[in-house]
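Bumping with the actual sequence this time:
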Amino acid sequence: MDHNFRKYLTAGSITGALLFFFGVANAQNDNATHMDTSTQKMLSSADTTFATKAAQGGLAEVQLGQLAVSKAESPSVKEFGQKMVDDHTKANDQLKQLAQQQNMTLPATMNAKDQALYDKLQKLSGAQFDKMYMKAMVKDHEEDVKEFQKEATHGKDSAIKNFASQTLPILEQHLQMAKSTDSQVASAKS
């Protein structure tokens, strides 16, 4: 009986020691995983902010472009508006796909500033619309180019950084087109 007692005591001690060891190791592993996750979130917060702004801006470009196609007087403004719809719809789709892969939720509406511009432009027509729309497009694309350059250079998330790098030349082309069309519209007689 004494021999069985020692056998159970030894087995119990070993089991207890193993449970303790694995419990501590598991707790340390959980802490390490938690630290990695919080570090990852901290590193990608700028990337997440960029993606959010890019999504909102892209939505605005499409909706404002549709407005230009229907309300602009100048054929070149209508053409520019259609290019915004086409190119930004494609970029928005790429960004949505990227966001799904990253488990990121993107906004489905424009920001307040872009919505206010849309509301203001909606009340205009003809040459007034053309001038205000093109002036806004120049300013907006200047800001977009800066933001995309910054992300392409300093982004932490390789997929988002790559999206910015691939989209940047298109935005630079849009900026040149916007400046050229804005000059045409500004010099046209009202």
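The tokens above came from a reply further down the thread. Confidence is low (pLDDT under 50) at residues 15-43.
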